[in-house]
Amino acid sequence: xxxxxxxxxxxxxxxxxxxxxxxxxxxxxxxxxxxxxxxxxxxxxxxxxxxxxxxxxxxxxxxxxxxxxxxxxxxxxxxxxxxxxxxxxxxxxxxxxxxxxxxxxxxxxxxxxxxxxxxxxxxxxxxxxxxxxxxxxxxxxxxxxxxxxxxxxxxxxxxxxxxxxxxxxxxxxxxxxxxxxxxxxxxxxxxxxxxxxxxxxxxxxxxxxxxxxxxxxxxxxxxxxxxxxxxxxxxxxxxxxxxxxxxxxxxxxxxxxxxxxxxxxxxxxxxxxxxxxxxxxxxxxxxxxxxxxxxxxxxxxxxxxxxxxxxxxxxxxxxxxxxxxxxxxxxxxxxxxxxxxxxxxxxxxxxxxxxxxxxxxxxxxxxxxxxxxxxxxxxxxxxxxxxxxxxxxxxxxxxxxxxxxxxxx
Amino acid sequence: xxxxxxxxxxxxxxxxxxxxxxxxxxxxxxxxxxxxxxxxxxxxxxxxxxxxxxxxxxxxxxxxxxxxxxxxxxxxxxxxxxxxxxxxxxxxxxxxxxxxxxxxxxxxxxxxxxxxxxxxxxxxxxxxxxxxxxx
Lengths: 409, 135
What we know:
The structure holds two protein chains of two kinds.
Chain A: H1 2-18, H2 21-34, H3 39-63, H4 67-110, H5 114-131, H6 134-145, H7 150-158, H8 162-170, H9 180-194, H10 197-209, H11 217-245, H12 256-302, H13 316-334, H14 339-364, H15 368-371, H16 378-404
Helix pairs in contact in A: 1-6, 1-11, 2-9, 2-11, 2-12, 2-14, 3-9, 3-10, 3-11, 3-14, 4-5, 4-10, 4-12, 4-13, 4-14, 5-12, 5-13, 6-12, 7-11, 7-12, 9-14, 9-16, 10-12, 11-12, 12-13, 14-16
Chain B: H1 13-44, H2 48-70, H3 77-105, H4 113-134
């Protein structure tokens, strides 16, 4: 019985923790501009993240070592250094966006300018990382993130023509007035948002932190196979909300306040409270994950002691990197750089860095020396290879499309 | 995201008209945002912190789009007329959003229907302007 409760809690946490500021902004912006014609990208992205998160969870559970640690040993320090630089840059950008996202969520509740709230938000993130137990931290924010289900409730209340929704989603086409490059630029942004590299670093490092063993493979797979697709459902609900309420009026999404608008307009005061709680939990949870991931990647590459479970005095450099990353992220946020812009760039650069993260995972998950009898199945390998091609194409096309479309203008 | 697309010189009258039409679209997006927000506030009594943030951001966006368009040099005398016409409608919209931001910060939005009607009128004017400019 306890096991079932644990698995259920893990799944619920995975659902609530799936959405971060990148998903909020990308899905809302795409829904308002392309309605459901890019919904297929969310599905593709979810399949991709399920595939690779399962692999990295399996690697971590069996080797008792996190992905970055194993990649360095298997592919050598030079390759891993390239991976480290790219991944750390993207994770740091995401951290800036997440901490700003927390401040923006609080601004919606208080109307205090988010810049005034940023330092407090950064401090809160660090205190939680420092003081709160790993599992509790993950559960609290993951479960609170379930508040974003309010988007699905709002969509159901709005009652769209489901036939039209299904038709648009299943017959993707470039909408009238939009260019093909812009359509593909947003497709890559959505894909990058769904497959952000920090998610697998955090997932695999978390498995080590929580001392998972073979028996926990069930929990790991349930989290990934059930939790992530249901998290993807939340992404589609956010997209649908803006597709129904904002798109017909030609409204573009430039602010978090607009992401909340479909819920506020449909469900009123209570809906607004719930959605702001959801924004807060999603961004706070992701800030914890990205803050920790910054420390994980650096410490695992250099072979330093790491982890929340390790005494701070023994993992001082790990905690130093986490603290420094948070301080720098707050400093970057305080330059008044547009947090939504940072989010958009972070997900596009995520797409660029994807092959460096996912290729090594595929290699290690196939190595019997590390994995024993738990190497990838043929089906997993076939899917993994197909995805790797998609990931490489997306990575190569991301920057040229960004330049050609002036970042999706 | 939207506003910076207007930046850059316009070398021909057609390009200038295109930039004016894009600006009208961006400002209309802000106006429509404010309309939905005010209608929801009227219907559901939404929390004032949220409504004032929404309106302030809508005004910021519209003002930024207006400012960016204003800084573009019209390539000829014909474009001067486009500039005059566009800035008149756009400026009216920005002023209306600013007024709403001021009253919402004072917690004094009061009866919202007239504000919504004025914004709807402005949204239609901006839509017509963009359509006319695009021919």
